[in-house]
Structure formats: C-alpha cells, structure tokens
Amino acid sequence: MVMPTLLADRITPLDYTELTNNHVFLKSCSNGYFQQHNTIHHGEEYHHHHVGPSAKELIGNALRKRVENIDHEDCEPGEEDTFFVADLGEVYRQHLRWKRNLPRVKPFYAVKCNPDPMLLELLSALGTGFDCASKAEIEQVLRMRVDPSRIIYAHPCKTNSYLRYVANQNVRQMTFDNADELRKIARFFPNAELFLRILTDDTSSLCRLSMKFGASLDSTDSLLALARELGLNVVGVSFHVGSGASDPIAFYKAVQDAHVVFQQAAVHGYSLKTLDVGGGFCADNTFEQMAGVLGAALDEYFPAHSGINLIAEPGRFYASAAFTLATNVIARRTIQDSELINNGTTTPDASYMLYVNDGVYGNFSSIMFDHQNPIAKVLRAGGQTLYNTPAAEGMDDESGVEYSIWGPTCDGIDRITLSIRFPVVLDVGDWLYFEDMGAYTKCSATTFNGFPNNHHTTYVCSEPGARALLGM
Ligand SMILES: *Cc1c(COP(=O)(O)O)cnc(C)c1O
Fold this sequence. Notes:
- The protein is of the alpha/beta class.
- It has 2 domains: 89-319, Alanine racemase (TIM Barrel, Alpha-Beta Barrel); 321-460, Beta Barrel (Lyase, Ornithine Decarboxylase, Chain A, domain 1), CATH 2.40.37.
- 30% of the residues lie in helices and 20% in strands.
- Strands 3, 12, 13, 14, 15, 16, 17, 18 and 19 form a 9-stranded mixed beta sheet that branches. It has an 8-stranded parallel barrel with strand order 4-5-6-7-8-9-10-11, surrounded by 4 helices.
C-alpha cells in the first residue's frame, strides 16, 4: 500500500464549488445507490470510462486473497486476525449522493466516526471540510495540509490547552452552548468564529446528544448578549439532531429554531453568516427522505438569496458502508439438545457457539456504543469462499444450522449475535464477514484482554474518479 502521508503530497485538493458546478451524471438503481460507474461531466462532452469490476467483485477478491493465504493450522499468532476491506469508491459515491440531494450544503466530515487515513485523504481531495473535537483529530487533518478554514472544532465544551493549540494553528471555527465556555473562549481565543449550538429534539435518534449538549431557546438570547459583552465573534448557529436520526421532522424543527436564533443575533448586532446542520444522516435509503425534508426547510428559512452559507457534519453517512470486516472462527462449542442425544453422534439439531477473534471490546464496539446490530455472513467454510453467494447469507426460516456468535474476551457480555442460521456447518479456521462496519467501530475498539485493535485494512476502489484523486 502507498503510505497516505506520501499521497498527501501528490493530491491537489479540488475546490468544492468547482466540483459542485460540474454536472454529475449518475445512474441510480432501485435502492437509491449507484451501481454504474459515474462520470463527471466536464464541459459539453463526457467520456464513458471502461466499466471495471464491480464493487462486490473488488471487495470479494481482496477478502479471498487474504483468507485463502492463511492456514490456521500453521500460521504465526495474529496472522488470522480480523481485518477490514475498505472500498473508497463507496465514499466517493456517497459524496455524489450528498451533492445530488443537498447541493447547497457543504459537508464537514465528522472525523470521530472513522479517522481512517485513506478515507480522510479522499474526502480532503473531494474538498470536504472536517468536524474535529480534539487536538489529535485536528492535528491529523492539518497534517494532510488541509487549510485551517476547512476545520470546525465542533465541541461545545473544549479543553483549555486545546483552545490555546487551535488559536496557534488558526483553526478559528468552533461551537459553544453555555456561558462558562464563552468566558473560556474570551480568555484563550477571543478572535474565534463562534457557532451557537442549539438544542434539538433527538428522541428518534440512535445516539441522543441533547442531554449533554445544546443551548435551549430560552437561553440563546442571554448567551448572545454575553458574547456581545465579551466582544466575541459569533458567526453562526449549529445543531445536531442526534447520531443515527430517523425522524426528518427533527431537521425541520431545528432549522426553524436556528432561524429564530439568527433573528435574535441580529438584535444583538450580529450578522450571522453560516448555518451548520450537524450530522445524524444515515447511509441507508432513509437519507433521500431526510435530505428532502431538510432541503425544503433550508429553502424556506435560509433561501439561496439570503446568502447564508450552509454546512453539515455527516459522519456515518460517508463511512459506514465503505468498510467490510472479516473475522476468524477461533473456537466452536457444540450444543446438543439433551433430548436428541441418543448414540453420541451430532444430530441435525445440534447448534453451535462460535467464538471469533473480534467482539464488542474490539471493532464490534458499535454494538455497545452505537446501538448497531451487525449481520454475520459466511466468508469461508469447509475450504470454500462463499462471499456474496446465497450460501453466505443467514436464513430466515428454521432450516440450516443455528449459531450464536461470541467475541474472544473472557467477558460474558462479549456477544455479537444471539442466534443466526446458516446453510453450512462452520468450524474452527472458517471466516465470517460483516458489511457496513465503517462507522463507530474501529475508532472505539479497545485492547481489553490483550486482543489487538490495530487491524489491517486492505483498500480497494470501485470508482475510477476516486482512484484518480488518490493517485491509485
Ligand atoms: C458525532 C457527531 C457528528 C457525526 O454524527 P453522525 O451520526 O455520524 O453523522 C457530527 N457532529 C457532531 C457535533 C458530533 O458529535
């Protein structure tokens, strides 16, 4: 693999507006995703690129190549470890999907969701901004030579020393939601460009945030008065409807409230210039509906002629579907229904507990922290690679063999799947895979019990446009 730090030197960041002004030709399939390779239209004519292998073929080949080279009978410790295959083409398609649905809103990718260096390189080349919440995240983005104006320090409760750090680095945009924070900013970075983060109704989201962050509309007026008194520079309003939002009305209501705060700010002499609509966008087919409601609210309250800049902080939207995880079966326990044991042999009704080398303390941390339910599929069983075949899929009916799937640590809570049925018999050394493992997985994995969290990632890219940007 080419080191991302080397790549950074060769990538010329694209101007975001330049990219949005080009016509983008998309061929969408029924589920709203794009299957064909997309062609960006330059001027009048456009060229059809050679249609290469599909995303599934590329991911499947990368998975196959690695697992077929590992023999659990004689490999070195760790060679059979969990690994990821990342399709950067998926990130590129999501970016086009974003621009098609929210053309006025510039995304600032939420780094915490997945700080994978190649993912960040591609987003940087695509011209997105970045939402960071700590010194390390800001450092990582600045190291890619991203201009500080493309970063928002979107944490309403910042560390003093980090504030001094961003003042030094000229990362000016940041959020606040309380009076103590305003006084802190007045002390350490009085020239910062401030976004007042307001409370939203997040009851329908997977990860609620409003009990921790956000100013209620009762307090925004006095906060703006205090900011004025302290001589601070308030430039916008931000909100976050909660990570994994499912109710588009939450976006509508939040835009409406933000508009109220814009008017309050005007009374205090602030001419706000930016609205930040936060994150929470899911990558599934609810996105189009969300974006439709949000876009309509923006057109109503912040129309194009208002001249207000619109930004957002999507995380999972970009990252989740791009990463597929493969994990190895390290142990198996056979469970016999005692009624069925007659002659000591395994009856067709036997079920199994599978122990794999990744779990909730590892990349399946998303089960605990992000309320996810990753779906197991069979990658390799009995010497056959089954990726993307019917035999890989869990079965809906009562046929097949029943499994529960457990992580490698000694903790009983470390369970991935309570019950799933596969048409094949799995044993030690076989592999499972899980799709949509890009968001809030690796970033919150621990090394509890001595199991590693620095797993290998193989990068593929199913979009020629993204390959060109990355020099792949
Ligand atoms: C986590 C977070 C995001 C990203 O949320 P997603 O659900 O991944 O889109 C955006 N903004 C802020 C302030 C966050 O804390």
